From TrEMBL:
The lineage of its organism: Bacteria, Pseudomonadati, Planctomycetota, Planctomycetia, Pirellulales. SUPFAM superfamilies: alpha/beta-Hydrolases (SSF53474). Pfam families: DUF900. This is Alpha/beta hydrolase. It comes from Blastopirellula sediminis. Keywords: Hydrolase, Membrane, Signal, Transmembrane, Transmembrane helix. The chain crosses the membrane at residues 166-184, 191-207. Coiled coil: none annotated.
């Protein structure tokens, strides 16, 4: 193959890398709805043009003027905007507000400039979620905003900056070009060309993710939002707002897709963390009490995430679950310092034990200061290690047989199975009204954890399913068809419907018609019926 072809490919790769790094997001084509500048344009009545008319030539009938003056309320159709200050929650929680749909794709530099300018003009407005201010047609899909409260002991972050985000992509791209030059020198043009193209392609892929992260950082800096790293910090509290698009599907955590060439987050398409507002402890619990008082059943749902999860993804998952479960109380989450890195398992394992004292403090303060009648807990994967240890300590210190927590859901717990059966589970049962354990034989993440830790995990049914008195163990192997088989608690319709029933119509596993009992070596456990007829009936309440 001619060397000039490979040289052209290399130049093309460089130009693409520069385009991605320089633009950050691809501008959208102008449409008749947005007029190309973010303002709703009025289409002409006819296709053959518009004739300019001087103002003096236009004569408005008096009856039309009178009609406008007589109906001023029709002028108040502006979309609702969320204020930065706390407002009373609507009757149906989680606190959701309708937002306009149109958010044109802009580059990070443009977004930062616009938000910084708005912040100087009205500092309070910078704390509101990013929303377009223009009116949009009623038939245009929009999004809703879910308010989620949080507790975390992560370290506050200041941002990595543009170089920190993009240097891996730059390194890959230039490394590929350098490799091509080396192969050219030693007359290995074909091999060098292929390797260079692969390296540049990988660089573009990494640059796309880096561009998304940099946009999020710019948005956070412009709005004054808090940012958290994987480092250890002090226990702190706050609230955040997450967008749920109207096109959202149950069980999906919509995000920009490389296959769709999506280079920026859009709230009308994706589940987006809009802002993070830190609060002093006193103000936090005052807001929590107000939200609980305004919820129909005065209840709370707290989610504790697992390994390889960022603060942002924990917030997004909490909002998605609260929305899909139609939870009418206050959604909350606790975020411990996970590294949000596939190769950070050892550090996450240590931090999941380090955080126990803070998680215990958080749970006790919520139980004592929220005035809630019902507190429900969901823990996933390694989050079960932290929550199990915290509940074990809480139960051991309880002087009376008081059930502090209502429903406790343990999803795919990455906990030593024997330790769970003998030490942790009995204490969780003591502190809770009902405990449900979801386990699977298809969980590749727990299989890897077993190989690392040397012992079976409580969320893995192999070699023997975990059965504990007072715990409803449910084997989800038959219905979990995901690739890794580890995140079924939030993305499998059948399991979401089962959790929906636990929260809205509590009943033991033996009374849920879509579950079938199985007698195992250690006692009774349950599996989902293959037909799923009962789950479909429950799912009717979950679908939107």
């Amino acid at each position: 193959m001619d060397r000039r072809i490979f040289a052209a490919w290399s130049v093309f790769g460089c130009l693409m890398a520069m385009l991605i790094l320089g633009c950050g997001a691809a501008p959208e084509e102008q449409t008749a709805e947005d007029g190309g500048d973010g303002v709703e344009a009025t289409a002409p009545a006819e296709d053959h043009g518009v004739v300019a008319v001087e103002p003096a030539e236009v004569e408005v009938p008096r009856e039309k003027i009178a009609a406008v003056e007589a109906a001023p309320e029709e002028m108040s159709a502006a979309p609702m905007m969320m204020r930065s200050t706390a407002e009373p929650a609507p009757t149906a929680s989680p606190r959701m507000m309708r937002a306009p749909a149109s958010m044109g794709a802009r580059t990070p530099i443009e977004m930062a400039a616009e938000e910084a300018e708005a912040a100087m003009a009205a500092p309070n407005a910078a704390m509101a979620p990013m929303m377009a201010a223009e009116s949009v047609p009623d038939d245009t899909p929009g999004y809703e905003v879910v308010e989620v409260l949080y507790g975390t002991d992560r370290e506050l972050a200041s941002g990595a900056g543009i170089v920190g985000h993009f240097y891996p992509a730059i390194g890959l791209a230039f490394g590929g070009l350098a490799l091509f030059g080396l192969m050219w020198k030693y007359q290995m043009v074909r091999v060098g060309g292929v390797l260079a193209i692969v390296a540049v392609a990988l660089g573009l892929f990494v640059a796309r993710d880096a561009g998304l992260d940099y946009q999020k950082e710019l948005r956070a800096l412009a709005s004054g939002s808090a940012m958290f790293s994987g480092g250890r910090g002090e226990l702190q509290f706050g609230a955040c707002h997450v967008s749920i698009p109207e096109v959202h599907e149950v069980g999906q955590l919509e995000a920009p897709s490389i296959l769709k060439l999506e280079l920026t987050e859009r709230p009308e398409k994706h589940v987006v963390l809009l802002d993070v507002l830190s609060k002093e402890e006193e103000a936090f619990f005052a807001d929590l009490r107000e939200m609980v008082a305004q919820s129909p059943r005065r209840e709370i749902l707290i989610f504790v995430h697992g390994y390889n999860v960022s603060f942002e993804d924990a917030a997004r998952r909490t909002a998605q679950m609260a929305y899909d479960l139609k939870f009418t109380g206050v959604p909350m989450f606790y975020s411990w310092p996970s590294q949000a890195d596939l190769f950070g398992y050892a550090t996450d394992r240590d931090n999941s034990l380090w955080t126990v004292s803070h998680l215990k403090e958080f749970l006790l303060k919520v139980a004592q200061q929220s005035d809630a009648q019902s507190i429900n807990l969901i823990a996933h994967s390694m989050g079960n290690r932290a929550m199990g240890a915290a509940l074990e300590e809480i139960a051991a210190e309880m002087k009376e047989e008081t059930k502090l927590f209502n429903q406790v859901v343990l999803a795919a717990p990455d906990v030593d199975a024997q330790v769970f059966k003998e030490e942790i589970a009995p204490q969780i049962v003591r502190a809770s009204n009902q405990v449900t354990l979801y386990a699977s034989a298809n969980d590749l993440a727990l299989l890897a954890s077993k190989n690392v830790n040397g012992y079976p995990r409580a969320g893995d049914v192999r070699p023997e399913i975990v059965i504990v008195p007072g715990v409803d163990t449910i084997d989800v192997s038959a219905i979990d068809t995901s690739l890794i088989g580890h995140a079924y608690y939030g993305d499998n319709d059948s399991i979401i419907c089962d959790i929906f029933t636990l929260l809205h119509q509590p009943q033991p596993a033996a009374h849920r018609q879509w579950l079938r009992s199985v007698s195992g070596p250690g006692g009774m456990y349950w599996v989902f019926e293959p037909s799923g007829a009962g789950v479909a009936n429950a799912g009717g309440a979950v679908s939107r």
